Known about the structure:
Blueprint lengths: L5 H13 L2 E3 L2 H17 L5 E6 L1 H7 L13 H11 L16 H11 L2 E5 L7 E8 L2 E8 L5 E6 L2 E5 L17 H10 L2 H24 L6 H9 L3 H17 L5 E3 L5 H18 L3 H20 L9 H16 L4 H15 L10 H21 L15 H15 L1 H13 L1
Helix pairs in contact: 1-11, 2-4, 3-16, 4-5, 6-11, 7-9, 7-10, 7-11, 8-9, 9-10, 9-14, 10-11, 10-12, 10-14, 11-12, 12-13, 12-14, 13-14, 13-15
Amino acid sequence: MLKQDPKYSKYIQILKEELVSAMGCTEPAAIAYVSARARQILGAPPERVLIEVSGNIVKNVKSVLIPNTGGLKGIRAAAAAGIVAGNPARHLEVLSELKPEQREEIARFLEDIPIEARLASSQRVFEIAVHLYKADSHVQVLVTDSHTNIVLEEKDGKILYEKTQEGPQQQETDRSVLNVDDIIDFADTVDPDDVRDMLETQIRYNSAISHEGLEKSYGANIGRIILKSYGNDIRQRAKAAAAAGSDARMSGCELPVVIVSGSGNQGITASVPVLEYAMESKADRESLLRALVVSDLVAIHLKSGIGRLSAYCGVVCAGAAAGAGIAYLDGGRNEAISHTIVNALAIVSGIVCDGAKPSCAAKIAAAVDAGIFGYEMYKNGKQFYGGDGFLAKGVENTIKIISRIGREGMRDTDREIIQIMLEH
């Protein structure tokens, strides 16, 4: 792909839009971000707080610890942390500057200030509205469709900012430009300096949280159990390293990650297994960067048709993408990578998303295993074919079907999962 090809600049821009840093689970971080921005507009501590969120936000906030808060969890805690100590200029790292002494202030805020959290009345999959009240003053900040996509800021009935057309696609590069053949072409030809900074940050951040999860006890210790139970070969190390990053992240680790498709777990899954295979094969740095380009862009391509939040587990997409990146690193190109993706999707597309929590690490291990096995199938001359279940002939046609299943077919599943979680 030549630099003057319009797709080249679009692919660079998609990576810039997707590979951003976040601390902790991105949904609590988004609540903290919106709350911090509302507090900034109000200009004073509020006397009352109302938070309205879509069901998928409830699902992904309910069970994860919020970093830097001393073990708090939940919508009210995320809002309180953002109001008391959040820096909205840091976006999804909004709580990264929170000081230990502010934990007591957050606890007092939770005890003293009425904070109501309720389901939003709209039918959006992704919505966070924060209302702050003080005397006669009222501030509202609304985010829809993605974590930092503010569409409305209002104070005392006056609109300070409003997007005339809602949705991140009005701001972001159109993801429909992505396809597997062009992703591989782009990875083969991209100037490494055009992607180096963001990929080096991804390597540094996601490796660090993976190591943290392996060295210390977080969550269900999925990564450590894999190595203890199944040995230390490269396949097990790739699964364990990715799972361990999630172990730490879901349990309040205060290290940042570089996310993919709005998810730290997907960012870890798409990158860490490729890093492990690169170290095993002693690949040079440029080869690693190109393999990460494949994995990241395939993950984005697979997830973009499904949407940011769904009952379809996003790490399935990232695990298949990791398999694609590993195949690329091993010299595989269009045929090998296409079959790897289809094989992996055929194996684990039944995994549902029941929110962010420690078991995400185990799902990551399963998804990475499927990605690696999908490539091993190809190397052994075996594959799943179009017409097998939901698979279609050709990788792009299968991806379209996966998008349809995740976006349309699993809506009722998503609603039922959310209802079950609200009941318990």
